[in-house]
Automatic annotation (TrEMBL):
Short name of one Pfam family: CC_Cfap43
GO annotation terms (biological process): sperm axoneme assembly
Coiled-coil ranges per UniProt: 410-437, 562-589, 686-738, 781-815
Organism placement in taxonomy: Eukaryota, Metazoa, Chordata, Craniata, Vertebrata
Name of the molecule in the record: Cilia- and flagella-associated protein 43
Superkingdom to which the source organism belongs: Eukaryota
Region spans: Disordered: 484-505
PANTHER family hit by this protein: CILIA- AND FLAGELLA-ASSOCIATED PROTEIN 43, CILIA- AND FLAGELLA-ASSOCIATED PROTEIN 43-RELATED
Organism: Eschrichtius robustus (California gray whale)
Entry GO CC: axoneme
Length: 1173
């Protein structure tokens, strides 16, 4: 319908039409009175740039169109005006624009408010159309359109203007805020700086868009995060928040709200998901405002919509009369000719008032030609002068006049034909290369398509198909899983006869319902006997074969149902032919139901590309175009010849109604011609004419009776055919429902078998894991045993070496002791005091400086000298001998000792020192050997401990292996409702579980049930008794409380203060009259007192004048007056206090009554309310 790619869509409020914008700059107006088959009624070409935005005003009078180049067009949206283009405005901003209530756009921190129009579009559209508001090019004049430029602090990704045109709402692009800006009331020129009036956090990330509700009181915000928010236009507070799309699909692209606000349509960006949001609770002031506004607007648009829909119907009728566009190439040329006639037709119906608008572009071109005619003449004169300057002839003449060395050849002044031919060849080669590349790409795509088809379709033995009911939406798919062709075929000898279920195990021990599909399970081993690995592998293979057989059995039933549906559809189509004939004969407006296969039922249709699926324009070669034109010419000639004069056919139509024999089917179309005399009055008829009229009436009556009989027979036949179709359809649907239940059961069987396979595979993997662990432990044990033998041998050798070394050490130690004991015997000849001195010298040893060797230094130098090495011992012995030389010096000899004795002494002492040194070395070596033996012993014990640990693990592993081989996981079928387990009490340990006969459990349950019933009966009896006791106790307590309340009331009555005034008020019948009398008496008394006081005052005044020396005097009248006033004032204060206290007492009485009621309520709440049963 729309040849180019659509970019935006908008629906008109004033008519059942829609506008679609495309990438090539067209706007297509569609008639959507028939939603299932909309068609284009008008096309408007606006610009070469894509159409980005379409927006109708709320009354549907005008359409605003925004393009990517920054132009905004105004179009009359009424079909009655033929969608006239009123003009456009150029914003000169090549960026994204948005059209809201007005057209706004933004770049860097600038907002341009377009359509600041003082004229009222909605009030006087005819005035605007008739006025000259656009120039010859269609651009709206500056006097009609006012532009205002504003600068703001944040760049906006979206902005809208409210309905009062005094505030702008913007969605900030770089900061997470939504701002509102107040527009200045006065007009200005240049750039005006706006500051945010309101600024709230959006709580949405990513770029967003704003839009207003139809009544202008809701602000709808969408963003890249996929969240839709609805805010109050005045406070910007969010009262609705909904996530409709995922942020992974780049959120929401667009949103539209219905006129009554009850539905919100949200469209995703990358996911192509369309979501319809509706209110769960929609009422109160929130709904009243928008519903009232929508009702008013609907009432206003009702008459306008009826009128405009009539114009759409006329346009639709005209387009239908002109025919539809053909499908093939021959008919494409016909459509070209038809389009020419359509254009002429539409030009013919254009009003005369619009011819001026149609011819205005030509007038504009003519005016521009006149305006720039002088400039064109100047440019032409310059071109001619330049041509004269660089004339070829002049250049050739100059060339003849120059020297031979500078002269050019004659051919160099002509065209370079070789270069031209070379360029032509290069272009041909480039075209051939591009064509070859395109062919290779197409070939690669076809090869890839063939590979995919071969792998995913042709290699399948059973293609995935489905069957649907003819009246209900129930789908049955064919194969549960697709089976490859190379699957092993089932041998004919193994096919079942379908009568017996050869199995030795019941279904609940078999673990599946595969026997319901007549599948042999006699080869399966019992689940209680699967101990070895080979048995489990064989069982898995047999279970897979059972799954294949179940699928094959179901697919055979599915194929039979599929063939049955094909037969049923063929039968229904045969009957529909006759039903269609009957409908035409009876002139009924009924539609005949035609059953068809859907794409899911015939998936091979997906692999066939239809011509309607190709959106690209078809390329027609010139020879094909010529051939098509020739065929079209011949077809038109044939049609003209067929419509030529045909005398025979016309005579047959005039004489016999176009048929040679009247059939029974033609009885409904038969008409008895009226006699010619019926045009005369009845009084002028003759007897013969009257007889003819009676015969005519008789024939008409017989024909009507025949018609009625034939009509009834046709209706009976049609009902019979329809009932037959309905019955066959219902039978097939019932069969398909049973097949669907069969499929569900087949899926259940397959799932059961797959569960058994998974359990067996898990046991095999577990067995393999245990075997690999056992092999690892055996290898590890062998290595440790070998290591144990090596450590034992090393300990034995170390003990032998230690014994030998210890024996040498004991010998040296004995020799050292012998030398020490034989010292005095050797020097027994000299005096005893000299012997003591020599013995002290014999025990004396020289001091040798020992080098300290740090352990960390020795650890850092592994190849240095160790503390007990031979080199260090030799160095220490040399230092000792050197020190002994100092001790053997003659200077150290005691006085009076013979030098020969000293020499003998020195030799003996040196032998003793050498022997001690050997003993020390042997002791150090003995310590090292003992330490070495200890380390070897510890290593041997460690190896022995590891061997014992491995032995223990091997024993546990073997126990686990035996346990897993004996404790098998079996699958048991249970009926629904046999097992009831509470939540969070599922037992997972079955180590002590045993199998018990069902009868024992049932007997035990019956005994438990009987005892339980008895216990419940006794508990009910006890409950009734306790209930009576509680009720009696409660009534007793209630009476006690009532008694306490009555006593309290009596006490309050007795203690109530009752004054005399109140008693007088109650006892005196005319209390008001008595009070009035008392007041009169008091007023008379006061008047008498006043007179007496005046007299006394005069008397004392006269006496004071007569006796001026008296400074102090007494005035009794004034004192009595003051006393009366004081008494009256005290009485007044007492009365006011009495009234105040009375008021306070009343308030306290009310509070006390409220508190008593609350106490009574709490008291009744404390005790249970026992209702009489």
């Amino acid at each position: 319908m729309v040849p180019a790619k659509a970019t935006v869509l908008a629906c008109s409020p004033s008519s059942l039409s829609a506008a679609v914008g495309t990438e090539d700059g067209f706007v297509y107006f569609l008639d959507i009175q028939d939603v299932e088959s909309p068609h284009s009624v008008h096309t408007a070409y606006l610009s070469e740039s894509p159409v980005q935005h379409l927006l109708y005003d709320q009354r549907g009078m005008y359409l605003l169109v925004g393009t990517s180049e920054g132009h905004v067009f105004v179009i009359n949206a009424k079909p009655s005006s033929l969608f006239q283009i009123l003009g456009f405005i150029a914003l000169n901003i090549h960026s994204q624009i948005q059209i809201g209530y007005c057209v706004v756009t933004f770049t860097d921190k600038i907002i341009k408010k377009a359509f600041g129009i003082k004229s009222d579009f909605s009030s006087s559209p005819n005035l605007i159309v008739s006025a000259s508001f656009a120039d010859e090019r269609g651009r709206l004049r500056d006097a009609f359109i006012h532009k205002f430029v504003y600068e703001i602090e944040h760049a906006l990704s979206s902005a809208v203007l409210n309905f009062q045109s005094n505030r702008i709402y913007g969605f900030c692009n770089q900061v997470p805020y939504i701002c509102s800006y107040l527009l200045p009331e006065k007009e200005h020129s240049g750039i005006c700086i706006l500051k945010p009036y309101q600024k709230v956090q959006s709580k949405q990330y990513g770029s967003g868009m704003l839009s207003l509700s139809p009544h202008g009181l809701w602000l709808i915000t969408i963003a890249k995060c996929g969240i839709l928010c609805i805010r109050d236009i005045h406070t910007l507070e969010t009262f609705v928040r909904c996530r409709s799309h995922s942020h992974q699909g780049h959120g929401i692209q667009s949103v539209r709200i219905s006129m009554d606000g009850q539905s919100i349509l949200v469209n995703g960006k990358d996911g192509s998901t369309l979501v319809n949001l509706r209110w769960r609770q929609f009422g109160g002031n929130l709904a009243n405002e928008i519903l009232e506004y929508s009702q008013q607007l609907s009432t206003y648009l009702k008459n306008t919509m009826d009128e405009e829909n009539d114009y759409l119907s006329l346009a639709k009728k005209d387009s239908l009369d002109l025919g539809s566009e053909p499908e093939h190439a021959v008919e494409e040329v016909l459509s070209m000719y038809l389009s020419m006639y359509i254009c002429i037709y539409h030009l013919a119906i254009i009003p005369v008032a619009c011819l001026k608008d149609v011819l205005s572009p030509f007038q504009a071109i003519k005016n521009e030609v006149k305006l720039f005619s002088n400039k064109r003449k100047e440019i032409k004169r310059g071109i001619k002068a330049l041509a004269k300057t660089v004339s070829i002839l002049d250049m050739m003449e100059e060339n003849e006049a120059v020297d031979n060395i500078a002269k050019l050849e004659q051919q160099e002044f002509g065209l370079d034909l070789e270069e031209l031919e070379r360029l032509h060849d290069e272009s041909e080669e480039e075209v051939a290369k591009i064509r070859k590349d395109a062919e290779m790409q197409n070939l690669a795509k076809r090869y890839l398509a063939e590979l995919i088809k071969e792998e995913c379709w042709n290699s399948m033995a059973v293609k995935g198909r489905a069957l649907k009911l003819q009246k209900e939406i129930v789908e049955v798919q064919s194969a549960i899983t697709l089976v490859k062709k190379h699957h092993e075929e089932e041998d004919e000898e193994e096919e079942e006869d379908g009568t017996a279920k050869d199995t030795n195990l019941p279904n609940y021990l078999l673990g599946s319902l595969s026997t319901d599909f007549r599948v042999h399970t006699s080869l399966l081993s019992s689940q209680l006997e699967l101990h070895s690995r080979e048995e489990k592998i064989n069982q898995i293979i047999l279970l897979k074969d059972i799954i294949y057989k179940v699928k094959t059995a179901f697919n055979s039933e599915f194929d039979a149902a599929y063939k049955q549906k094909e037969i049923e559809i063929a039968r229904v189509k045969e009957k529909n032919v006759r039903i269609q004939e009957i409908v035409l004969d009876l002139e009924l407006e009924e539609s005949v139901w035609q059953p068809e296969f859907e794409d899911c039922e015939k998936p091979e249709r997906t692999l066939i590309v239809e011509s309607t699926e190709i959106t690209a324009q078809r390329h027609i070669n010139p020879w094909q175009k010529a051939k098509t034109e020739l065929l079209v010419t011949r077809e038109m000639e044939r049609l003209l010849l067929s419509r030529g004069p045909n005398t025979r056919r016309r005579a047959l139509m005039d004489m016999m109604g176009g048929v040679l024999e009247v059939k029974k089917e033609d009885i409904l179309r038969m008409v008895i011609p009226q006699p010619a005399f019926l045009s005369k009055p009845d009084a002028l008829w003759s007897e013969e004419e009257r007889k003819q009229f009676k015969a005519y009436e008789k024939k008409v009556k017989e024909l009507n009776e025949e018609r009625d009989k034939y009509r009834k027979s046709l209706e009976t036949e049609m009902k019979k055919l329809q009932n037959s179709i309905q019955e066959s359809t219902q039978n097939f649907d019932e069969h398909l429902k049973r097949l669907f239940e069969r499929r569900v059961r087949a899926e259940m069987v397959v799932s059961q078998e797959e569960l058994k396979i998974n359990n067996l595979v898990f046991s095999l993997l577990l067995d393999e894991e245990i075997s690999s662990r056992e092999a690892f432990l055996n290898n590890y044990l062998a290595r440790k045993q070998e290591e144990k033998s090596q450590t034992t041998e090393a300990i034995r050798k170390s003990r032998e070496d230690l014994d030998m070394y210890k024996e040498h050490y004991d010998n040296l130690l004995a020799e050292d002791k012998v030398l020490d004991r034989s010292f005095k015997k050797e020097f027994s000849e000299i005096p005893s005091h000299q012997v003591d001195i020599l013995y002290k010298l014999f025990k004396r040893r020289p001091r040798i400086h020992k080098q300290k060797v740090h352990s960390d230094t020795t650890s850092l130098v592994p190849f240095g000298e160790r503390p007990g090495s031979g080199k260090l011992n030799k160095d220490a012995f040399a230092q000792l001998m050197k020190a002994m030389d100092d001790l053997d010096s003659i200077n150290n000899m005691p006085e009076g000792l013979d030098p020969s004795v000293w020499e003998h002494f020195c030799m003996t002492r040196r032998a003793k020192v050498e022997n001690e040194q050997k003993v020390k070395q042997k002791a150090a070596g003995l310590i090292e050997m003992v330490a070495f033996l200890q380390r070897r012993t510890e290593d041997d014990e460690k190896v022995q401990h590891e061997i014992e640990k491995v032995f223990h693990e091997l024993i546990l592993l073997q126990e686990d292996k035996v346990k897993f081989q004996l404790n098998l996981t079996i699958q048991i079928l249970l009926k629904q409702g046999q097992v009831e387990l509470e939540n969070f009490q599922l037992l997972l340990d079955y180590s002590d579980a045993i199998l018990i006969n069902k009868n024992i459990i049932e007997d035990l349950n019956s005994v438990i049930r009987t005892q339980g019933q008895k216990k419940v009966a006794s508990m009910m009896e006890s409950k009734e008794i306790h209930k009576g006791i509680f009720q009696i106790e409660w009534e007793h307590k209630k009476m006690e409380m009532e008694m306490e309340d009555l006593n309290q009331k009596a006490w309050d009555i007795q203690m109530l203060f009752f004054s005399r005034d109140r008693q007088k008020y109650l006892n005196e019948p005319n209390y008001e009259t008595l009070i009035a009398i008392q007041i009169g008496i008091m007023e008379q008394t006061i008047a008498v007192l006043d007179k007496v006081g005046l007299k006394d005052t005069d008397h004392y005044n006269s006496s004071s004048y007569n006796n001026p020396n008296n400074s102090f005097f007494f005035i009794p009248g004034i004192g009595s007056t003051l006393t009366c006033e004081k008494i009256a004032k005290e009485r007044y204060e007492n009365m006011m206090q009495h009234q105040k206290l009375t008021k306070i007492s009343k308030e306290q009485a009310e509070q006390i009554s409220i508190l008593q009621a609350e106490v009574e309520r709490l008291r009744m709440k404390t005790f249970p309310a026992l209702v009489q049963m």
